[in-house]
Inverse folding.
């Protein structure tokens, strides 16, 4: 039961923060905390990939964007003109479409966000799979460069495709009604729902990833980091393990992208940008590389400060500087867990 | 039928023939030694058997009658072949116990998903694997080091962890690449006794070693490589008297020994 303590502390802290903001009338902070939470999901997946399995990715913003854009495209597509088509009728029959009005007051019929969430997961799995098979054969600098190349491609696609709204991105993304009262959108009335949803998802992800670290598969992944040749000699199919983890971290990023897009009501190409990918890498480095809790804290704090605008116009520069300082002074991270040594 | 059969194995790097047309067999339950001067191709031969290197066309490695020379390392391990490395390759940032638990990889089956969800069947599996790893550490006399970071151990202790990790695979054939290098006389003697015990427990051993007194005393059979070619094979005492082996490798003085 001792292992459960940090998770309980996190849950208590999440509730405490919400109550403090409510009591002090600063509940507007919750919006940025919620957004930091979605970003923290991405960095926790990346922490698993980079810190534990030793596979760097400077292209993870691409998976976040794949999730976000999938959600945005599918839920802003107006199905009214083809509502008598057999396929749309079938979807409507299954309750997989939603009728509403957009911000211009036009009646629209759009796909259920649940469906677009599933689509986002499938597309991110497929993309990570296709990219991962050739790219994960590379190591170190070469892997970094290859993932950087992948991120750049996705960014250019987001920027250059009319379907994705070009430089403006996509807006008017409808709310994601999870359950009865739990709605993910940017409105003040649903701020609490969004906040607790983000915190709950962080809790689920960190519990699952912590379990993974100390499981058979987690040991195999850490062994790959420690010495790939020796890991293979133990019978570990290193290529498969690396690919599966790459796909897993991509799916986590895509799901975060979906929720962020519904929360913000839109998404722009900056989310797919290289600067975002570098930011995620910097956060994992600050968190201590192989340290899920450190990465979570670093992700929440740095993103919160960034979103509140404390870094001003030096936003990206701050993350660049953080990365340099980390590499020079503490390549193993600041929030490093002290290993037990009897 | 021999447990391991190597037929016409060749491997070259660029123009260099590291191993040239080597054939030999390892019978079940024996300790077979491979000796030869530096650069004779011993480690290359090992890597070809273990799957880390792809031997040249026309080469064949048969394990238990089946070909394994096209298999990747992890598939070779799955067949029941474990190995240690000339330069110790432990998993850094993992404890000694975890290192040996990784050796139990093939004795368990918990997937990535099962690990994340901590499915009930993995609980029992974890306990079994942990117990097996602790037992091996106990056998190697390093149980007290279980929670230490593997990278921070003394050299001889690291060797012991590597042995325990390889044995955790429950191999039928164990490949040992210079297990005594860097060890003192006392530790070398311990390793000799350990290898004999491993053989007596039913594991076949193929060993590359430079320590002549060790390999001559433990090997049931020896093979001598020189410039990638087999120049002699037989009982240790016959090898010690072989004029060709004395000329290229052992030197005159060890002849009188």
């Amino acid at each position: 039961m001792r292992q459960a303590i940090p998770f309980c502390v996190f849950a208590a802290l999440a509730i405490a923060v919400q109550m403090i903001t409510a009591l002090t009338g600063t509940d507007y902070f919750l919006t940025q905390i919620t957004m930091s939470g979605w970003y923290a999901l991405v960095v926790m997946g990346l922490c698993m990939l980079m810190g534990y399995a030793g596979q760097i990715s400077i292209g993870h913003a691409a998976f976040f964007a794949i999730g976000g854009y999938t959600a945005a495209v599918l839920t802003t597509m107006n199905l009214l003109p083809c509502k008598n088509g057999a396929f749309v009728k079938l979807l409507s029959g299954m309750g997989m479409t939603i009728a509403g009005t957009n911000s211009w007051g036009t009646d629209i019929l759009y796909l259920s966000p649940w469906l677009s969430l599933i689509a986002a997961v499938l597309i991110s799995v497929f993309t990570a799979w296709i990219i991962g098979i050739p790219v994960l054969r590379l190591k170190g600098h070469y892997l970094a460069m290859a993932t950087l190349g992948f991120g750049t491609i996705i960014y250019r696609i987001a920027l250059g495709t009319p379907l994705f709204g070009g430089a403006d991105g996509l807006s008017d993304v409808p709310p994601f009604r999870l359950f009865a009262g739990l709605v993910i959108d940017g409105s003040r009335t649903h701020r609490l729902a969004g906040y607790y949803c983000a915190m709950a998802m962080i809790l689920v992800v960190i519990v699952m990833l912590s379990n993974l670290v100390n499981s058979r598969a987690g040991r195999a992944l850490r062994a790959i980091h420690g010495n790939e040749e020796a890991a293979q000699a133990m019978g570990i199919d290193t290529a498969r393990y690396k690919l599966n983890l790459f796909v897993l971290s991509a799916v986590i990023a895509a799901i975060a992208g979906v929720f962020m897009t519904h929360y913000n009501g839109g998404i722009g190409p900056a989310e797919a940008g290289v600067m975002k990918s570098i930011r995620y890498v910097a956060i994992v480095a600050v968190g201590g590389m192989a340290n899920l809790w450190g990465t979570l804290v670093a992700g929440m704090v740095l993103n919160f400060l960034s979103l509140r605008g404390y870094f001003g116009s030096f936003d990206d520069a701050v993350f660049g500087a953080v990365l340099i300082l980390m590499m020079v002074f503490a390549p193993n991270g600041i929030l490093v867990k002290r290993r037990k040594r009897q | 039928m021999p447990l391991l059969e190597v037929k016409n194995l060749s491997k070259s790097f660029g123009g260099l023939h590291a191993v040239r047309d080597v054939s030999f067999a390892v019978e079940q339950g024996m300790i077979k030694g491979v000796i030869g001067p530096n650069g004779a191709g011993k480690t290359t031969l090992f890597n070809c058997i273990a799957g880390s290197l792809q031997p040249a066309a026309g080469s064949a490695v048969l394990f238990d009658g089946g070909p394994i020379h096209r298999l990747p390392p992890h598939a070779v391990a799955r067949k029941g072949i474990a190995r240690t490395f000339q330069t110790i390759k432990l998993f850094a940032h993992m404890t000694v116990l975890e290192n040996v638990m990784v050796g139990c990889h093939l004795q368990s089956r918990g997937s990535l998903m099962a690990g994340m969800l901590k499915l009930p069947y993995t609980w029992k599996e974890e306990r079994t694997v942990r117990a097996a790893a602790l037992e091996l550490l106990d056998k190697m006399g390093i149980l007290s080091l279980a929670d230490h970071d593997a990278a921070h151990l003394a050299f001889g202790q690291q060797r012991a962890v590597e042995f325990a990790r390889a044995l955790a695979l429950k191999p039928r054939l164990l490949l040992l690449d210079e297990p005594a290098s860097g060890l003192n006389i006392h530790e070398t003697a311990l390793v000799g006794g350990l290898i004999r015990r491993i053989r007596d427990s039913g594991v076949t051993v193929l060993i590359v070693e430079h320590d002549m007194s060790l390999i001559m005393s433990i090997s049931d059979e020896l093979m001598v490589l020189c410039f990638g070619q087999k120049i002699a094979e037989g009982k240790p005492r016959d090898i010690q008297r072989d004029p060709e082996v004395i000329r290229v490798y052992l030197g005159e003085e060890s002849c009188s020994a």
